[in-house]
Amino acid sequence: MKVVKIKNRFVPHWLSYKPDEVEKIIINKYNKGLTKSQIGLVLRDQYGIPSVKDLTGKNINKILKEHEINEALPEDLVALYRKAVKLHMHIDRGKKDSHSVRSLVVLENKIKRLINYYKAAKKLPSDYSYSLEAARLVVKI
Questions:
Q1: Are 130 and 108 in contact (CB under 8 A)?
Q2: Partner of 37 at 20 to 30 A CA spacing, among 26, 60, 61, 109?
Q3: Which residues are CB-contacts of 89 (< 8 A; sequence separation ≥ 6)?
């Protein structure tokens, strides 16, 4: 396979997409409701783009920031919220499932550690805190 090297980026010769076309695809997919990781998978699987960063010189997050698109909460935190809400619903149905109760405690501690990390990185406000009710509103289950 012939590979073209452009400024320390490796773009396959068969790739016909231009960087501005890829940016438009990313914005379109985000507006349709896909997360950043889902956009990367769609670009790889449906469009045959192996690496957005190699083609455009920017990652998906940077492209969205340039177009002034910001998420309220980071994607990994939302995924943990979704897991916590589902686990809490499971525990409500079966009160004696002590293994799941412990799993919920471990998961909530993981969420709190991640929130502390995002507060230190200034991606979340300093007064942000975790609550199950807030998680339910974010997840909408």
A1: yes
A2: 109
A3: 141
Domain that holds residue 94: 75-139
Domain final position from 45, 66, 87: 66
Q: Which residue has the tokens 């994607």?
A: 75
Token couple for 24: 């438009």
**83 and 60 share a domain?**
no
Structure tokens at 23: 């940016």
CATH of the domain at 91: 1.10.287.10
**What total of structural domains would you count in the chain?**
2
What are 84's two structure tokens?
Answer: 């916590």
Are 26 and 43 within 8 A, CB to CB? Answer: yes
- The predicted-structure confidence for 69-95, as pLDDT tens digits, reads as follows 888 889 999 999 999 999 999 999 988
Q: What is the dihedral angle through the alpha carbons of 133, 139, 140, 141, rounded to the nearest 10 degrees? A: -90
Q: What is the pTM of this model?
A: 0.76
Instruction: Give 141: exposed, middle or buried? Use CB within 10 Å, 0-12, 13-18, 19+.
Output: exposed
- The residue behind tokens 């452009």 is 6
What DSSP element (H or E) covers 6?
Answer: strand 3-6
